[in-house]
Amino acid sequence: MTALIRRAPSILRSKFNIRYFLSPAARHMEETGLYGCHHLKTPKGFQRIVDDAIERSNELVGYISRMPSASEIINAMDEISNTVCQVVDSAELCRNTHPDREFVDEALKASMRINEYLHYLNTNLTLYDAVVKAEKDKTLTSEEAKRVARDLRVDFEKGGIHLCAEKKDRVSQLNVEIAKCCAQYNENIAKEPGYVDVYPASLIPKNLHNLVKPVNRSTSRGSRFNIREKGFRIVTEPSTVSAVLQWTPDDEVRKMTYIKSNSVPRANLGVLDKLIAARHEISQIMGYKSYVEYALQSNMASSPDVVSSFLVELSKAVQPKAVEFESMRDFKRRKTSQHDLGLEPWDEAFLARSMKSSAYNLDFSVVSSYFSLSQCIEGFKVLVESLFGMKLINIPLAPGESWHPNVLKMALHQPNEGDLGYIYLDLNSRPGKYPGCAHFAIRGGRRISKTEYQIPVIALVCNFSKSKYSTNVRLNHSDVDTLFHEFGHALHSLLSRTDYQHFSGTRVAFDMAETPSNLFEYYAWDYRVLKKFARHYSTGDIIPEKLVTSMQGSKKMFAAMELQQQIFYASVDQTLYGDQTLSPIDTTSVVADLRKQYTNWKHVEGTHWQTRFSHLLYYGAGYYSYLYAKCFASTIWERVCKDDPLSLETGTAIRTKFLQHGGAKDPAQLLNDLAGDGITKYQNGGIIPDVTSLCRELNLRK
After folding, report:
1. Which range has the worst mean pLDDT, 321-325, 368-372, 402-406, 662-666?
2. Closest CA to 281 of 406, 175, 123
């Protein structure tokens, strides 16, 4: 799948051209289908768009086989990718968000069919030979086109196009096994989220009642029998677990929740073993020592040694501040009056919140009162207008276009350029929906002709729920931070103006993809930004500057511990996919050893956190990218944004020097163009971020 679908996929042209999205004139209210695609009026429409995508792609394969000019080969390859990606992306969004099971099932079937077809495309020697011819052709003058040709050739070879028939078949089998492992891993999590029942009900704070389910049991008291005792069931899915661990004072409730959430689904231990083994075998067939070495070859880091040196450098900077752990232990001992009491992993979130609240006199319920979901969407509008001179305009949804009544649609509009892209917002929690927050591509941008541009369409999906005792959705500030992170991804997609969808938006070097999203997190913390939209849900008062100052201070508390945790995650990822001497490797032992090496927290016997860490599937060997992004974003903020974060000058720099280029330019060059020399540095033959700004920001010694 790598050659024609790179990193983050996208949607349609030719018979799939969703004209509904392309111009203001198309905003009519005729009945349509999902995402404005008229074929998707019914679930069976997914069969039709797969059929049409395969038919059109076969026509283009036939055209390429006649070996037209180099530029025509690249254009046709990009149209194949564009056509297929739209099916992949629409099916992926539907599978994760649609409440109708029939739509979900048909989207899954479509995904499986189109992936089978992708195997045919990605092992097609005619296409590979054409790409090789185009790359060598001196008439290919566009730098972006040359980059597409080189990337396609490398990705074809990474997929084993050059192997003998026997090895190629084995790689194909392994890729099918990997896809099945990823699907099984996620299915196991969905089927077995785990739960704990808590009695009595009074042990669960009222502010969590909207996240738990009432249960009861028979009990007896004295001479009275069959008394129904009320309790709550905690389903141990990520957002609920996070809230319970932060807000529940009872140690035993937190302990039960932590252990259960880190010990299901057990079946994923075997699934993960198979996934690691399959990826390792592919890397060896391709001539690499490990999957890490194989996966990093196209990234800025380029090799495991580069990533290792970066993690070591960052870890050394963090270690002197590890006294945070001791201060947390002392706080717990003072609160309990037990001076020999140690810290447990389920203490971390609760004690960190308690200590932040105490140190800065923070009431987190007061903080959330200034961040209703509707006001946060106003914050998006403030950002695009101040930074880019644009507007986010609400657009009525046509009948059949939406998948749920809560979905909103907006256009990113520039007065002189018109609509630059469209965004669906699906932000409210509901059963059966993708459990986290994510940016989904629906269609990537690309140049169709000298006068016409296929504008991007994306969806932001989150899971925010309103309290049982409120009429609107109010966000914890950590949720605001997450929302702005995802909006950074959205802007990367919407502002991209590449000639080829192959490089549209977030289709960049893997270890730069998270930089825009991390950069826009800073906007969620700056008072100059927050005062423009953060208003009390009841009084309308602007958030007090003193409160924001306290929030900023609390953010830096335990920053070193949080960074240690991220380094631990990255190290687990690198180790599990690293050089294998044992097969299968004992993943639980690896996790336990690395937790001890990189954090102050102990491993709890019987738990296996790695069975719910889905980044091992989709960010396999690439989790370090989050840390790269934190460093890059910190430097960009310090050098480009900090003095005047909302100025048009700042926004113009971000847009024209960075976001609009997607993956069409060298990533290190883009970063240096935006933030100046020194944001990246060469080490061991690869590129790593300079960590100085991040260390300065977090008061770490470099």
Report:
1. 321-325
2. 175
DSSP labels for 204-242? S-GGGGGGSEEEEEEEEETTEEEEEEEEEEEE--HHHHH
Query: Each residue of 267-299: pLDDT tens digit?
Result: 999 999 999 999 999 999 999 999 999 999 999
Alpha helices in 531-586 (DSSP H): 545-556, 559-576
Verify whether residue 486 is a known catalytic residue: yes
Identify residue 227 by its one-letter amino acid code: I
d(CA 611, CA 554): 31
Q: Return d(Cα 163, Cα 171) in angstroms, integer.
A: 9
Contact call for residues 346 and 258 (beta carbons, < 8 A): yes
> Which residue is it, tokens 């509009």?
413
Calpha distance 24→391 (Å, rounded): 14
CA 98 to chain centre: 19
Q: If you count DSSP H runs as helices and E runs as strands, how many of each does the chain have, helices first?
A: 26, 12
User: Where is 437: in which H helix or E strand?
Assistant: none
- Give me the catalytic one of 486, 514, 638, 697: 486
CA quadruple 430, 431, 436, 438: dihedral, nearest 10: -60
**What pLDDT, on a 0 to 100 scale, did the predictor assign at position 219?**
80
- Of 370, 365, 377, 366, whose CA–CA distance to 537 is shortest? 370
**At 302, phi and psi to the nearest 5?**
70, -25
State how far the Cα of 499 lies from the Cα of 148, in Å rounded to an integer: 10
Q: Please compute the mean of the pLDDT values over residues 405-428 and round it to a whole number.
A: 97
The encoded tokens of residue 403 equal: 């998948």
Residue 3 has pLDDT above 90, yes or no: no
Strands 195-198 and 680-683: unpaired
Is the pLDDT reported for residue 191 higher than 90?
A: no
Mean pLDDT of the chain: 92
Confidence of residue 702 (pLDDT cuts 50, 70, 90): low
Average pLDDT estimate for 221-227:
66
Q: Is the peptide bond before 584 cis (omega within 30 degrees of 0)?
A: yes
Cis (ω within 30 of 0) for the bond into 200? yes
Rounded Cα distance, 420 and 413, in Å = 6
Q: Give the pLDDT of residue 4.
A: 52
Q: Are 483 and 425 in contact (CB under 8 A)?
A: no
Dmax over Cα atoms in the chain, in whole Å? Answer: 94
What is the rounded CA–CA span in Å between residue 131 and residue 206?
61
Which residue, chain included where needed, has tokens 């299901």?
Answer: 264
User: What is the DSSP-derived secondary structure letter of residue 474?
Assistant: B
φ/ψ region of 506 (left if φ > 0, alpha if ψ in -120 to 50, else beta) reads alpha
Q: Distance (Å, rounded) from C-alpha 586 to C-alpha 272?
A: 10
Q: What is residue 463's three-state secondary structure? A: strand
CB atoms within 10 A of CB 586: 12
In tens, the pLDDT along 596-647 reads: 999 999 999 999 999 999 999 988 999 999 999 999 999 999 999 999 999 9
> Side chain identity at 396, as an amino acid letter?
P
CA–CA separation, 115 and 84 (whole Å):
9
Length of the chain in terms of residues written:
702
Quick: pLDDT tens for 123-153: 999 999 999 999 999 999 899 999 999 999 9
**Cα 311 to Cα 315, 614, 638, 698, distances in angstroms:** 6, 21, 22, 17
Question: In the β-sheet with 224-235, what is the strand arrangement from edge to edge?
Answer: 195-198, 224-235, 213-221
